[in-house]
Amino acid sequence: MSDPVVIIGTGLAGYNLAREFRKLDSETPLLLITADDGRSYSKPMLSTGFGKNKDADGLCMAEPGAMAEQLQAQVWTHTRVTGIDPGHRRLWIGEESLVYRDLVLAWGAEVLSVPIEGDAADQLFTVNDLQGYGRFRQAVEGKRKVLILGAGLIGCEFANDLSLGGYAVEMVAPCEQLMPALLPVEAAAAVQGGLEALGVRLHLGPVLNRLQYAANGLEVHLSDGQTIACDAVVSAVGLRPRIELAAAAGLAVNRGVVVDRLLRTSHAHVYALGDCAEVDGLNLLYVMPLMACARALAKTLSGAPSEVAYGAMPVTVKTPACPLVVSPPPRGREGRWTVEGSGADIRALCHDARGALLGYALTGSAVQERLALNRQLPTLLG
Ligand SMILES: Cc1cc2nc3c(=O)[nH]c(=O)nc-3n(C[C@H](O)[C@H](O)[C@H](O)COP(=O)(O)OP(=O)(O)OC[C@H]3O[C@@H](n4cnc5c(N)ncnc54)[C@H](O)[C@@H]3O)c2cc1C
């Protein structure tokens, strides 16, 4: 039998690539390897699960056995790849090695860790996969109050979702506004108003220094001297693409594993997509880009080299307390923001010097304008 195409990772990038590949090639042996349990799920659902009252089993779309059958592939679960040797088309799982025809890195990004002191520091949860969601859900079962670290997109979605799930929510982040990397201040204020109307309490400015057990749960100590009681803490302070194994193997890495528009790394027969990949300089941690990459790479792996193209990539943020759609200006394009509206309904547009639309942030009723505006947005990879 010929050497397999091996995909490391069974997140949306790995499984979608396998699905696209099988539409074009039903013969080549296909092997997916994952460090987790290999269940298929849609990661965006992890920040709407409490509002919809779904536990981890409820969010699982297919068991790995069913995926293997559907994809005519092998799926190795709970198996961590520990090294790759591109020169010999080989990867390592501990002492065992395996030869591939082509290797695809779809191993995602990991949650940034924050240095925290205190005897309950190990009670800091992260939710970046279905298993993490399951652990967190179990920990807060029957509890009342959750503290969220981080005020980025994911932190805001968790705040909205946990509130809908009946929890009292506090947020702590060392910034002056919500989603500072994404939003102009007026749009951030609109989202803040929506979350506060749900009862979310924001502490913008301080960091969490210490997490310790108290008589009835946990006690959080902030750098500004405040102490907050809560039952659990979930960290959403950001993600870092996994690059260590690639770097150790001599592949070019930057913020992510560096690939060109054919999704090729710096070494022949090794490709990357999804959260771990930096595609022609862009590391976008969203679903739309990885779907475009999966379709292009499937063609390339089937013998028809195809470059990926990114159109505009607006992101719908799941904060129903204040609907939000945002399309940040492309990297390196200077623009000027103009903001209209007030309260919950903000229309913030970013134009270049010649008046061309570069990006937008729409909140409240202004989100209705997104389709018309999307047609004017520049492509990200044309
Ligand atoms: C809570 C949340 C909500 C989100 N909501 C949205 C949204 O609304 N819209 C949107 O566009 N995007 C959203 N995103 C982002 C989007 O879900 C991700 O960009 C996408 O799911 C990443 O998929 P991936 O397959 O690249 O990585 P992952 O899903 O992280 O998969 C990585 C895989 O690699 C495996 N792996 C890692 N290291 C190894 C190893 N050494 N050996 C073997 N296997 C390994 C893991 O076990 C896993 O199977 C959200 C993200 C989160 C966390």
Short description:
The protein is an alpha/beta fold and 382 residues long. The protein contains nine helices and 25 strands. The strands form seven sheets. The protein has a five-stranded parallel β-sheet with strand order 3-2-1-7-19. Strands 9-16-10-11-12 form a five-stranded parallel β-sheet, with helices on one face.
Structure explained in plain terms:
With 382 residues, the protein is of the alpha/beta class. Helix 1 (12-24) runs parallel beside helix 8. 23% of the residues lie in helices and 28% in strands. The protein is globular and about 60 Å long. Strand 21 (315-317) and strand 22 form a beta hairpin. It has three domains: 5-109 and 239-302, FAD/NAD(P)-binding domain (3-Layer(bba) Sandwich), CATH 3.50.50; 113-235, 3-Layer(bba) Sandwich (FAD/NAD(P)-binding domain), CATH 3.50.50.60; 323-375, Enolase-like, domain 1 (2-Layer Sandwich), CATH 3.30.390.120. The chain contains nine helices and 25 strands. The structure holds flavin-adenine dinucleotide. The site of flavin-adenine dinucleotide (FAD) has 33 residues, from helix 1 and helix 8.
